[in-house]
Amino acid sequence: MTGISKEKTVKTTCPYCGVGCGVLATVREDGSVGIAGDPDHPANYGRLCSKGSALGETLSLEDRLLYPEIGGKRSDWDGALTLVAEKFSAAIREHGPDSVAFYVSGQILTEDYYVANKLMKGFIGSANIDTNSRLCMASSVAGHRRAFGSDTVAGAYEDLETCDLLVLVGSNLAWCHPVLFQRVEAAKANNPNMRVVVVDPRETATCAIADLHLALKPDTDVALFNGLLGFLSETEALDRTYIEAHTNGFEDAIQAAGACEINRISGETGLTPHDLATFYTMVARTEKTVTLYSQGVNQSVVGTDKVNAIINTHLATGRIGKPGMGPFSATGQPNAMGGREVGGLANMLAAHMAIENPDHRALVQSFWQSPTIASKQGLKAVDLFNATRNGKIKALWIMATNPVDSLPDADGVAEALEICPFVVVSDVTRAADTVAYADVLLPAAAWGEKDGTVTNSERRISRQKKFLDLPGDTRPDWWQLADVARRMGFEDAFHYDGPAAIFREHAALSNAGNNGSRDFDISALKDISPAAFDDLEPIQWPQPGTSVSNGETRFFAKGGFFRSDGKANFIAVSHKEPRKRERRYPLVLNTGRVRDHWHTMTRTGKTPRSSSHIAEPYAELHPDDAREAGIAAADLVEVKSPHGSAVVRAQITGRAQKGSVFVPMHWTDQVSSKGRIDAVVAPETDPVSGQPGSKFTPVAIRKLEFG
Ligand code: SF4
């Protein structure tokens, strides 16, 4: 023994949720990897949740894709990427740029996203690049842009700790953003004045810290927050100075909201007049209020209206952009925010610029020196797969996501991939059912094997760093995309010697031609050296001390919105009665996450620890609904809609709302036969954001009889 340890510890970031916790990964002499929370990372200060703690157990090569495959047979990179380039080029030649598409993921790194977006929008000339983040936060993006003129999340995690009232809407923070929940829990323990309100049809684990749980009827949030706007107005709790100086459209919004008629709102939302009055009074009297919202708001056919109904209440009180105040959308995925920065969605350009704006298009095209630039929005996720099913998409590249299991109407997605003449899948393992539909399969580098950046829910950019060698012939996603771009003839614009070079270009673009009218600017990092990039500490934008608007270092405290007049827009929204349920489909299906699994379990499925909490898919049913259907606890039941069916185990609990059934979204048919709930979910979307309403599908449920 020399006493010299060969252990190596690398600072990186958790690849699961949008909290973006810092992780210390220690590679031991025996090759095993120890995982600990990074005490210096400002997202988690050393904490990790159950998913993050188990990361070291998910790194085995079992099931890994190690070599490129063509038609199910092992190939090499030259053969596979030549074929991809030829097929995409041929489709564009014969059918035009909009005949090809990329469907990417909030799991890929900002550098991957940047190259994919540049290739599709600047060189292919289509905006047909969308992402599974469409399922996660598209309604928040649309709501921000309608209100602020930019997709700006104005707050930070500290605001959740320093507020006196935290309203959690459609967020099971305890399971979906657990470290953030731990921070809130600790803050509440230290602040006797702090109150937490949970707005959720279900009684979730988050209700453990709630002073008030508002179990509203599904999809009635607009009625609740319009009622709040009316109440604030009627009780003189408005900040008229802020409204006057920094906003437009207040009168229209208040008119659309209507008077605060508690009995009417009670009828619409199903909440008691007493609970409504308690909530409204709490908000009216508490200056330091934060409203955090997540998928229960976003995943709705009225998701954007819900977001704006919430934002309206903050604009009306001037409670935005100040410590302990503001609306705050929690992103689901580790790099949903990074995808937004690079414009990796079908309705965005790059660097928070707008595809509809000719000046922005010219600016980006000039920066990229590209032959073309997409001039209109592309197909959003659900539309993209519908178009594929209709034969309009001739070549499709799916990267780091599993739409055959995770998109609504999942059987329809599988059919679309059968129909599509050429499907490329880049992924890490064979665990995703989508892999079976690939004409070309590209083995991607996994977490721990690749380098780049991610941005968390509070706009903090952190490094994901390599601590393991690339196994087999695996390669990072950006490398695959850049190689295909060059083979398609775009020689000069895709020569990168590593992620630092891509990051520099991304940073430079954030301020290209800047006239100060955009929120996202990281141009201070545009000359970062590879060594400095390697050591980059977590950094939030705007960078500390930077004046963002009207001399403020926080967004929107004194206005400074990203519209020509610098004002925010109130958006007039009205409550729409949720879709009527037919007699045949009397229950509302709500899908979501469990504590210890992630997405379609391609990573968390590798460790038994992640299944020790909840081992199989289940349907959470109210006792009255179970009794009516003759279902007992632990019965196997079929959940059915016009789109498909799934088989799960019944769990009967008063935590469920009568008339609703909750089923988690993680299980695939590979893991649990017929457990794939997205086969049941309706592919209906919000008309503004294109986000599917995954929390409201009318379904029927019946007990399966055996023998
Ligand atoms: Fe990872 Fe999210 Fe858990 Fe943090 S809270 S350790 S980012 S899953």
Automatic annotation (TrEMBL):
Q: What is its EC number?
A: 1.7.99.4
Which cofactors does this protein require? [4Fe-4S] cluster; Mo-bis(molybdopterin guanine dinucleotide)
> Keywords assigned by UniProt?
4Fe-4S, Iron, Iron-sulfur, Metal-binding, Molybdenum, Nitrate assimilation, Oxidoreductase
Task: Indicate the enzyme's highest-level EC class.
Answer: oxidoreductase
The Gene Ontology biological process annotation of the record reads: cellular respiration; nitrate assimilation
The entry's family comment says: Belongs to the prokaryotic molybdopterin-containing oxidoreductase family. NasA/NapA/NarB subfamily.
Full-sequence portion shown in this chain: 1 to 707 of 896
Mind telling me which residue stretches traverse the membrane in this protein?
Answer: none
What is the name listed in the Swiss-Prot or TrEMBL entry for this protein?
Answer: Anaerobic dehydrogenase, typically selenocysteine-containing
Tagged with keyword Iron-sulfur: yes
Q: Which residues form the 4Fe-4S Mo/W bis-MGD-type domain?
A: 7-63
Can you name one GO molecular function term for this protein? metal ion binding
Q: Give the CC-aspect GO terms.
A: membrane; oxidoreductase complex
